[in-house]
Write a structure and sequence with these properties.
- This protein is α+β, with helices and mostly antiparallel strands.
- The protein has one domain: Nucleic acid-binding proteins (OB fold (Dihydrolipoamide Acetyltransferase, E2P), Beta Barrel).
- Helices cover about 25% and strands about 30% of the residues.
- The chain contains two helices and five strands, in the order H-E-E-E-E-E-H.
- It has a five-stranded mixed beta barrel with strand order 1-2-3-5-4.
- It is globular and about 40 Å long.
- The N and C termini lie far apart (about 50 Å).
Amino acid sequence: MVQMQDVMSKPMPDFREGSIVKGRILEVRPREVLVDIGYKSEGVIPIAEFDEVDSLEVGDEVDVLLERLENDEGMVVLSKEKAAYRQNWYKIVHVFE
């Protein structure tokens, strides 16, 4: 059983729009992937944003960009593609510093 003390001792992810957070794949659907980032609701990412769809498995961790905390349907708006782009950009900038 999870103790409240254990839950409270874990650092809370940064839930700011525009931040990159870790997500965990909950379900792989034909058109989208359902991802949990530890917020109050899950988010969906279009399947087209994943390179190797056949290798996706429930429980896999993925870096995602938190675009919006909530859309009209109450879901978190996430992007794997934009997170990868931003991470690569940071790497390039760091190399030239």
